[in-house]
Amino acid sequence: MKEQLNLVQEWDKTFPLSDKVNHRKVTFRNRFGITLAADLYEPKDAQGKLPAIAVSGPFGAVKEQCSGLYAMNMAERGFLSIAFDPSYTGESTGTPRYVASPDINTEDFQAAVDFLSVQENVDPDRIGIIGICGWGGLALNVASIDTRIKATVATTMYNMSRVNHNGYFDSTTEEDLYELKKELNAQRIKDYKNGEYELGGGVVDPLPEDAPFFVKDYYDYYKTPRGYHKRSLNSNGGWNKTSSLSFINTPQHTFTGEIRNAVLIIHGEKAHSCYFSKDAYNDMVKNGKYTENKELMIIPNAVHTDLYDRVDIIPFDKMESFFREYLK
Fold first, then answer.
1. Whole-angstrom Cα distance, residue 139 to residue 153?
2. b vs e for 37-63, b when ≥16 Cβ sit within 10 Å of the residue's Cβ?
3. Among residues 48, 72, 124, 260, which one has the fewest Cβ atoms lying within 10 Å of its Cβ?
4. Number of domains composing the chain
5. How far, CA to CA in Å, does 131 sit from each of 66, 164, 170, 196?
């Protein structure tokens, strides 16, 4: 049975529409048969074939949040850009809802490249990607396999496989992990009996007084007018609980040393998650022969969500120069 797409046509983003770009909704299918919904931004009065960029993230966000902001800003700078909702989320199809998978989500990015490659006003030899938060980690996964991607930016990155397996700051013990596996597999039985998938919850609300800073940081974005969106998983009910299983059992970044094309990793100095980017960069250059076009950029004093929507902190000038250098 074909799923019905219901694409909202009015502007419902967490940021205002720039008068320097044209915007429209588009759709495309991945090789798992899921139709992905995206916002396409293109520079006004652009002529000829353009370089193009696909953007997604953060993990549990929707295209109406910061991925759309990134795509629109890159379109202002001359790149045709799309921000898409991953499979099973937002306006994209896929049932059951709110499922994540490193394999399917890697494919989502590749399907976005498929779509961009056949647009009449896109140069298929000049395509890049931007991944934010958990999608930054997935972007490196995609760059490992997709040779069509000439330049990759991973910003305020999470490695979702690592954090699900090892916990925050690699604090999970072997016994903790075993108990988590038991809990998640028991949840599978519960979901099967109930005929539906129980959600794990989005960002905690109300915010506990003793919450760690990074939880307060997330709350400040996802649960306030700054970044709240009604279709965002993190702003509302979250992923289904058993989504963690596939990430626990599927490492990412195994083959990043094989990436020949350019990679720029960006992270805030004060972000709780900065270790993901530092380790990913070090592993990529330590294990690879193709190090001359790899770069790690640390933004002084920035925290994790500063790179979601703080346009005074997000290094758009750097990203523009990076893409212009490698998408040529």
1. 8
2. bbbbbbbeeeeeebbbbbbbbbbbbbb
3. 48
4. 1
5. 11, 19, 22, 30
Structure confidence at residue 2 (pLDDT): 62
User: What's 43's domain CATH number?
Assistant: 3.40.50.1820
What does the pLDDT read at residue 36?
A: 98
Dihedral (CA of 136, 296, 252, 183) sign? negative
Mean pLDDT in order along the chain per 10 residues (328 residues): 81 98 98 98 96 98 98 98 98 96 97 98 98 98 98 98 97 98 98 97 95 97 98 98 96 96 98 98 91 98 98 98 97
Q: Give the helix ranges, DSSP H, for 167-242.
A: 174-194, 213-222
Q: Measure the CA angle with vertex 230, ends 17 and 211; round to 5°.
A: 105
Domain housing 116: 21-170+255-326
33 burial via Cβ count (<10 Å: 0-12, 13-18, 19+): exposed
